[in-house]
Amino acid sequence: MWRYLLTDATHESLSATRAVLGGFLDGLAHARGDTSEYFKAVASTWLSEREDSRTFDWRYYLVKYPSMREGATGIYYGVDGKLGY
User: Fold this and answer.
1) Strand partners, 69
2) Structural domains counted in the chain
3) Is residue 83 one of the residues assigned to a domain?
4) Terminal CA-to-CA distance of the chain, rounded, Å?
5) Phi and psi dihedrals of 31, rounded to 5?
6) How far is it, in rounded angstroms, from Cα 31 to Cα 49?
7) Widest pairwise Cα distance in the chain
8) pTM, whole model, 2 decimals?
């Protein structure tokens, strides 16, 4: 995923990604204290916006419930290591 974003995608197709990533990194650079608190605040704000708009897509559930991710790696979780769609 990162390899594609950073090497294969066109400049034009990355405009939205650049805006979001730039905003996130700017906020991180200006954050005071522990970076984990900044990450939690960003996630909390995003979740609140989703809940207010009642937008509960797959991204919402991955952010909302740590059990949807395996450990601290961000790897998707599936019973017996299979996603089982």
Assistant:
1) 76
2) 1
3) no
4) 21
5) -70, 145
6) 21
7) 41
8) 0.69
Does residue 32 fall inside a structural domain?
yes
| d(C-alpha 55, C-alpha 2), whole Å | 26
Q: Is residue 85 part of a domain?
A: no
Considering the domain boundaries, does residue 60 fall inside one?
A: yes
Beta strands in the chain (DSSP E): 69-70, 75-76
In sequence order, the β-bridge partners of residue 70 are 75
pLDDT tens sequence for the chain (85 residues): 667 666 777 888 888 888 999 999 999 999 988 999 999 999 999 999 999 999 999 889 989 988 777 766 656 666 676 665 5
Residue ranges making up the domain that contains 58: 7-78
* Chain length of the chain: 85
